[in-house]
Automatic annotation (TrEMBL), chains A, B:
Gene that this polypeptide is encoded by: yheA
Lineage: Bacteria, Bacillati, Bacillota, Bacilli, Bacillales
Coiled coil (UniProt feature): none
Signal peptide from the UniProt entry: none
Top-level taxon of origin: Bacteria
Family per record: Belongs to the UPF0342 family.
Protein name listed in UniProt: UPF0342 protein MHA01_17580
Length: 121, 121
């Protein structure tokens, strides 16, 4: 068990030192220091969160909410730093997902094919 | 990036060698080799899966389905090997969750308090 934890801390440290994380941190700090950009991104994330919560509760968002979300998405897409930050977040999310696949390989070998292949067998 | 992958493979290997995983594998193989136990567990998992899918779609399971699920849960609980396997699966799930917390610490430092503390701040 202690060896697992040691290896997890080593991986965590490698992730922190990685180019991918360092770039994310720079972009995140850049947005945090720009009051207008920060407010724009906060608003966008709040609207996204509200839409997700409605979807999870099986509720239909109103036309106004959808229009508002689309407008805010276009705004953040046009903001250079925010759009870079969102791309970098997407990249980190892919990295983490790849790491999880590698780490849980022993369990996948035990229980069968990986999730994404299930329907095709 | 390659260092992250190397560290993830080392962690995966440590997980495979761990007492926790080896015990899970032994119990899993024991059930696989016991036709009656295997059928009992498969039935239980299928009923659980159906109930989960209904819940996710916002549907209410029927009284019969709930009763059936409870009966099957009692059956697998009383089966020594299956109940041990399910306990071991729970333990592995806790291990994986702990590992994920360690690995994603850099991201939590960037984005704020961990999920479980959010409401309390
Ligand atoms: Ca199997
Ligand atoms: Ca922060």
């Amino acid at each position: 068990m202690s060896n697992i934890h040691d290896k997890a801390y080593e991986l965590s440290s490698a992730l922190r030192d990685s180019e991918e994380f360092q770039q994310l941190k720079e972009l995140h700090d850049e947005v945090e220091q720009d009051e207008v950009a920060k407010r724009m991104l906060d608003n966008f994330r709040n609207v996204q969160l509200e839409l997700q919560q409605k979807q999870m509760q099986g509720e239909q968002p109103s036309e106004e909410e959808i229009t508002q979300a689309q407008k805010q998405f276009e705004m953040v897409q046009q903001h250079e730093v925010i759009s870079k930050l969102m791309q970098q977040e997407q990249q980190l999310s892919t990295v983490i997902s790849d790491l999880n696949k590698i780490i849980t390989e022993p369990l996948e070998e035990l229980y069968g094919v990986p999730e994404e292949n299930n329907g095709q067998q």
